[in-house]
């Protein structure tokens, strides 16, 4: 995509695999340009640039600090291990860089609040890397579930995010190391499940979460697999369940039933294909005479997308950054609010697990 | 279907709506014939016969007892309210009638054991009315989930059975009346969810069940909606969740994820269509380069069925009855065992609900 003169200039701190996908997304987003990459080792950064065919114009730094000190960098995408977020995200904000932070955002909401305060006080945009929220299918799903006639009151939401960790992953990946990504599967993949439940409830926080007693940890205590149920105040009878795991076949199910409709989306985090995505949906279903079949055929709704969801995420983030630069806007509070609520619920699930699966009240 | 001379002669006690479907199934099954119907009122029985176009040869009785006293009746299909099962099912067994009993089988396992003992001591076949177990799709699903390579170890099973009760249903249907069907939604639709979980675990009983705190009861205390999680002994990390309700849009989801595969079946109790049924299935799924899509397309597996599942149920039941009559076989213990395990788990869910959603050990 040709670079617009007003494009937001991105730096990437860290050369994790996910950075390759976001580097491509930055290239695809019309209002963004990849300006610099940094690794703790300049060799690693050079290799990343070569492997990903980055233009020779992309600056290459051998330390995160150097990248953050470059005044031409407007925004930073930060795919570092979670335990490093607090230090580097706060520094990025202080250096007036808009911050696209990989999820999970922090080890707990206390750390996240320090990051968000740094962004707020420095007038920079914050957003976490939940790409699926930016797919047009997600907007279509939302239109549907908030249609009182077609869907009605939400009764049950079930969300999974599982992946089969290879032996190598389970032994040495940063996501199973207590000093790097202490939240394990709850952070790496459970973040999506929790985010999907909150999204489906229009970000109304549950009052209580309860981990189920199927927790599996590795020898260092990091969560490899867990489930939980979420409950709202007594007048709100929605029940939601999540299951996240490094030990199961790839799944990313979002299934919801309301008083008038139901839907199934089995690839909500990463669509099967890049340019179009679907979900199944039924409303007003009942049985034919004698109950020997259904009166409605489940509808497959397909939504096309001109840009992949990660490029739409970058575009939205860069749009916010542009609005701040051009019009002196305040950062959009929508994105930090979403991240904070997700972190609050994640903290409560973690606490419930640590307490032996006792019910835990969700903090505000 | 032309009646075979050896066809098992069925009587139906009770003219509930479901009896219409099973009357048709008896007509469709090649080894069964509808011989008699009974209602507490002979007028009601006559109307049922007329409405369903029953042959003039079908005997019509104004009491259940008269039908059970007819020596030509080999087998009884009994769609009575659950609270009447103990009395009439035991009497039917004593009268040497094979017993196809509508679910839930009894108010608790104590009552069911009395029914099963009566069947056992009188040498008659027992089966409950779970039709979906007899669909060839169910056999196909089972082949798949017990394939260690394609599916692997089962990690999570989620099952729902929900229907939107009309105002009339919620006010006056027998399924919401404490003196008729005291188990409410747990019995009427939760039976399927529990049955599906047990089926998926090859009838290995969970050790603990835990109702979730989203229970909704009516003013008379009957359960209208509830959820629960099931857990096995520590070495078995499967987690299963159920949700059953009279207050939600029609849903009957069975979703499972194993170490190597996953499947989704959204009409497992009553297929969308009568003659063929499908499910979605993936094995070995992972992401393509850069994680911008999946490496496998989910496969839709379709299974055709020459007879509807309820006719296959009648056929299997009549086959067991024939084997007893012709060859002096003992009744097949498979079917009472399935019912008893389902009832045991249902009892534990009920107890967990009654205890305020505390974990409950499943009895043996």
TrEMBL record, chains A, B:
GO MF: nucleotide binding
Domain Gfo/Idh/MocA-like oxidoreductase N-terminal residues, every copy: 8-127
InterPro entries: Gfo/Idh/MocA-like_OxRdtase_N (IPR000683), NAD(P)-bd_dom_sf (IPR036291)
Superkingdom of source: Eukaryota
Pfam families, per database record: GFO_IDH_MocA (PF01408)
Listed name of the protein: Oxidoreductase
Organism expressing this protein natively: Pyrus ussuriensis x Pyrus communis
Lineage: Eukaryota, Viridiplantae, Streptophyta, Embryophyta, Tracheophyta
């Amino acid at each position: 995509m040709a670079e617009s003169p007003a494009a937001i200039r991105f730096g990437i701190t860290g050369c994790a695999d996910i950075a390759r996908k976001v580097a491509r997304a930055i290239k695809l987003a019309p209002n963004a340009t990849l300006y610099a990459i940094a690794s703790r080792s300049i060799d690693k950064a050079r290799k990343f640039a070569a492997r990903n065919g980055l233009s020779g114009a992309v600056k290459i730094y051998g330390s995160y600090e150097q990248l953050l000190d470059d005044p031409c960098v407007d925004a930073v995408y930060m795919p570092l291990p979670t335990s490093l977020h607090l230090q580097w995200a706060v520094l990025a904000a202080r250096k007036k860089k808009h911050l696209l932070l990989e999820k999970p955002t922090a080890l707990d909401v206390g750390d996240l609040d320090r990051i968000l305060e740094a962004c707020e006080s420095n007038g920079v945009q914050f957003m976490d890397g939940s790409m699926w929220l930016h797919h047009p299918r997600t907007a279509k799903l939302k239109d549907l579930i908030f249609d009182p006639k077609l869907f009605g009151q939400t009764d049950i939401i079930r969300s999974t995010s599982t992946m089969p960790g290879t032996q190598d992953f389970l032994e040495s990946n940063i996501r199973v190391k207590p000093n790097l990504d202490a939240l394990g599967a709850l952070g790496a993949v459970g973040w999506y499940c929790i985010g999907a439940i909150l999204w489906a409830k229009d970000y109304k926080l549950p009052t209580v979460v309860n981990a189920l007693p199927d927790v599996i940890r590795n020898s260092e205590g990091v969560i490899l697999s867990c489930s939980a149920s979420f409950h709202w105040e007594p007048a709100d009878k929605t029940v939601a369940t999540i299951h996240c795991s490094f030990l199961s076949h790839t799944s990313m199910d979002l299934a919801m039933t309301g008083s008038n409709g139901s839907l199934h989306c089995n690839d909500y985090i990463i669509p099967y294909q890049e340019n179009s995505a679907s979900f199944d949906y039924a409303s007003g279903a009942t049985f034919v005479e004698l109950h020997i079949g259904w009166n409605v055929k489940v509808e497959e709704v397909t939504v096309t997308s001109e840009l992949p969801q990660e490029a739409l995420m970058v575009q939205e983030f860069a749009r916010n950054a542009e609005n701040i630069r051009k019009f002196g806007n305040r950062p959009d509070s929508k994105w930090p609010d979403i991240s904070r609520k997700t972190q609050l619920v994640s903290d409560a699930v973690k606490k419930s697990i640590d307490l032996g699966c006792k019910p835990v009240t969700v903090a505000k």
